[in-house]
Specification:
Blueprint: H1 2-11, E1 22-29, E2 38-40, H2 58-68, H3 79-85, E3 96-104, E4 118-126, E5 130-134, E6 137-139, H4 141-150, H5 166-171, H6 175-186, H7 188-271, H8 279-409, H9 413-524, H10 528-543, E7 549-552, E8 557-558, H11 564-571, E9 578-580, H12 583-596, E10 603-605, E11 623-625, E12 631-632, H13 637-644, E13 647-650, H14 653-663, E14 666-669, E15 674-675, E16 681-682, H15 692-730
Parallel strand pairs: 9-10, 13-14
Antiparallel strand pairs: 1-2, 1-3, 3-4, 4-5, 5-6, 7-9, 8-12, 11-13, 14-15, 15-16
Length: 731
């Protein structure tokens, strides 16, 4: 082991001398067969041999050394592997084992800063732990691994420790395997592994770099988009600032008007401060409050209209922007077409110049040709005459050659005749063949003429089809132009409907808000339990489909606004009694309310109401029977006579006191002061803003306005859907 390496190092030349280290001491406890602590020392600096009987622990001795040095290249131990390293025998169970090796590092082969020349490596193994120690200090496995690698213990070298059988395996290896083994022993594979790891890291770094570049490009694009959005936001903020300034100016103007009106009212009230009754002052205050409410409603309507106008401005701005973009595109196309037209005109002019030059050259050539034509004709005739003479001379010469050849070729007249007959037969066969070819050419000529006629007919048909196709194309172009015009008109109508839909939606939301306000005013004029009970009656009647429930008394009549205070004073909470047709309906509703734990309500069944006739009303201009100023349906007359038949509207309390005693009636003034039949007086300040009848009137008015707005909105939405279908059809 180490002593062998030290001895080999001493035998090396000085130029290749390498620092050595050797094993000094081995300590182990609880490891396999070594239950108790055992210390083995000293070891020889040369060779050390372990001998013993079978089962004495020789293999476990080397296994202990291999546990510290040889097990570094393996992964973490599993639970069963750690358990196999612990001692198993009689007695108490061993829960922990360790192996400690003392190494001589006097020559500094292990690069550590330690004052001692002895380095202690220790590995402790338990059922749930696997720890390493260096000089009694806890370290990680990676630190031990790096330390031993720096000393020459490579993870890729399987021969740091040579167990039994490895030498025989080495002797039977092939040359390639032995070369790989030598590389592992020399530690070069470590550098190959590190090179592969470095290449993998470089590839991963390049991949990350590409991702970073892509991310930077995305960020740059996003920054450009954000810059554009920033500009749009700045423009929007500028416009919004102008809008706020306009709103503030408008509100401030309205506020100043209201303050001036209030100051005028205060001055008038101070002038009329001597009025003992205070009725005129109260009337003026109520009129002023009514004017303020009217102004507030007008202001709310103006704000709603302003929002609608803002939405319209946004839509128009967007449409204007689109139109500007379209105009810019068309202008660019026009410029491009102008440039193309200029280029075409220039090319056409150049072609015309070239054509004029060619025409001049052609004219010149034709003139020269006309001048040379007589001479050419004369020369052509002479050439034709000479060619004919040449052909005749050549034929005569051929005949002479043939005669000479024939005379010398045949030995007798019979042979000559035979040869001539044979040549005549060949000439006849050639003549027949040429006649057949001429007949075939004539037939082909006739076929070509027929096909030429057919081609002419097909060409005429094609020209007719082309004309028809052009005609259809013109018609289609006209239809497309008409459809485009129709599409543009439909688009404009659809945009108008969108704007109208936005306006109606804003108006509907404003009506809903005002209706909620009026309903809250009415709700605040009664107790919460009564309001919930009345709402429960409406809900149950709708869900159970119970007929004959006509609603609260306040919902069933109409009266002039100047009598609101008098009527409310006379009826009080009886205005919230629910009118039904029969007592059976009332009993059923009471049962439903009881089952739903929905509160208490007073029902007025019309079939059970029997108000007495009369009374006899006084004949005076200072009094008015209250029931005569109410407008209601005839079928509800019993309910209203039951409540209002003994109430008079009087000019003042003095008149009321007189007639209440003489006619046994309850009298109420227009301001709400009352005198009952028993002589009790009641009155004081009445806040008209909390008027129940006014809130109910606002509810009815707003419900009608809301229903009309919703109907109109539904009609606009339906028309918009129809237009969408028309636009889709046109497209």
């Amino acid at each position: 082991f180490f002593p062998i390496e030290r001895e080999a190092a001493r035998r090396r030349p000085p130029s290749v001398f390498r620092p050595t280290m050797r094993l000094l001491r081995l300590v182990m406890e609880g490891f396999k067969c070594y239950k108790d602590r055992i210390e083995l020392d000293p070891f020889s600096p040369k060779h050390n041999i372990v001998v013993g009987a079978n089962g004495s622990g020789k293999s476990n001795f080397f296994a202990a050394i291999q546990l510290v040095f040889g097990g570094l290249d393996s992964g973490p131990l599993r639970a069963e592997d750690r358990k196999a390293l612990l001692h198993e025998g009689a007695g108490a169970h061993v829960m922990n084992a360790y192996v400690e090796i003392h190494i001589d590092n006097s020559e500094g082969r292990l690069p550590i800063d330690s004052p001692s020349e002895v380095v202690i490596l220790k590995r402790s193994v338990g059922l749930k732990k696997d720890e390493y120690f260096l000089d009694r200090k806890h370290v990680t496995k990676v630190e031990i691994l790096n330390l031993l690698e720096s000393a020459g213990f490579s993870r890729s070298n399987p021969y740091n420790i040579v167990p039994q059988g490895k030498v025989n395996q080495l002797t039977v290896m092939r040359d390639e395997q032995r070369l790989d083994l030598l590389k592992q022993i020399a530690g070069t594979t470590t550098y190959d592994d590190r090179r592969r790891e470095s290449l993998a890291i470089m590839e991963e770094t390049q991949s990350r770099q590409r991702k970073v570049v892509e991310m930077l490009e995305q960020i740059e694009r996003r920054l450009k988009e954000l810059d554009a959005e920033k500009k749009e936001l700045a423009a929007y903020q500028a416009l919004d600032k102008r809008r706020k300034v306009a709103e503030y100016t408008y509100y401030d103007k309205e506020q100043r008007k209201a303050r001036e009106a209030l100051q005028k009212l205060d001055a008038a009230r101070q002038r009329d401060g001597g009025d003992s009754s205070g009725k005129a002052q109260q009337a003026r205050e109520e009129a002023a409050k009514g004017a303020v409410q009217t102004t507030e409603r007008t202001l709310a309507a103006a704000v709603s209209a302003l929002k609608v106008l803002q939405e319209s401005v946004k839509s128009l701005t967007k449409a204007h922007k689109q139109q500007l973009e379209e105009a810019a595109r068309l202008e660019m196309e026009a410029q491009q077409q102008g440039a193309d037209s200029a280029a075409r005109a220039e090319a056409e002019a150049e072609a015309r110049r070239e054509l004029a030059q060619l025409a001049a050259q052609v004219s010149q050539a034709e003139a020269e040709l006309a001048a040379l034509a007589p001479q050419h004709a004369k020369l052509s005739d002479e050439a034709a005459t000479l060619k004919a003479e040449e052909e005749r001379a050549s034929a005569k010469l051929q005949q002479l050659y043939k005669r000479e050849t024939t005379a010398s070729q045949f030995s007798s007249k019979a042979a000559r005749d035979k040869a001539l007959q044979k040549e005549a037969a060949k000439e006849r066969a050639s003549l027949e063949k040429k006649e057949k070819q001429a007949a075939a050419l004539e037939a082909q000529l006739r076929t070509d003429k027929s096909e030429a006629g057919k081609s002419e007919e097909e060409a005429q048909a094609a020209r007719a089809r082309l004309a028809e196709h052009r005609k259809r194309e013109d018609a289609a172009r006209k239809r497309v132009a008409a459809q485009r015009a129709e599409h543009s008109a439909l688009t404009d109508r659809r945009k108008g409907l969108w704007r109208k839909e936005q306006q109606l939606g804003e108006s509907t939301r404003g009506s809903v808000a005002e209706l909620d306000k009026a309903q809250r005013t009415l709700q605040q004029s009664m107790s919460r339990s009564l309001w919930e009970a009345v709402r429960a009656v409406e809900r149950i009647a709708a869900e159970k489909k119970i007929g004959g429930v006509y609603g609260m008394l306040i919902e069933l009549f109409d009266v002039d606004e100047k009598f609101f205070t008098a009527v409310e004073t006379a009826a009080a909470n009886q205005l919230f009694h629910v009118v039904v047709d029969t007592d059976e309906t009332a009993a059923r509703m009471l049962k439903e309310l009881q089952q739903a734990n929905a509160g208490r309500v007073t029902f007025m069944p019309l079939n059970r109401l029997r108000p007495q006739d009369g009374p006899q009303y006084p004949d005076s201009e200072d009094v008015i029977p209250m029931v005569k100023k109410l407008k209601f349906e005839e079928r509800f007359k019993p309910a209203f006579r039951q409540i209002f038949r003994k109430h008079l509207i009087v000019r003042d309390l003095d008149v009321g006191s007189r007639f209440s005693k003489s006619h046994d009636l309850d009298c109420v003034t227009l301001e709400g002061d009352s005198v009952n039949r028993k002589g009790a007086l009641s009155g004081g300040y009445t806040d008209l803003r909390r008027s129940r009848l006014r809130a109910q009137l606002d509810r009815l008015r707003l419900r009608e306005a809301l229903a009309a707005s919703e109907a109109e909105l539904a009609a606009v939405v339906g028309e918009g859907e129809t237009l969408d279908a028309e636009v889709t059809r046109v497209l």
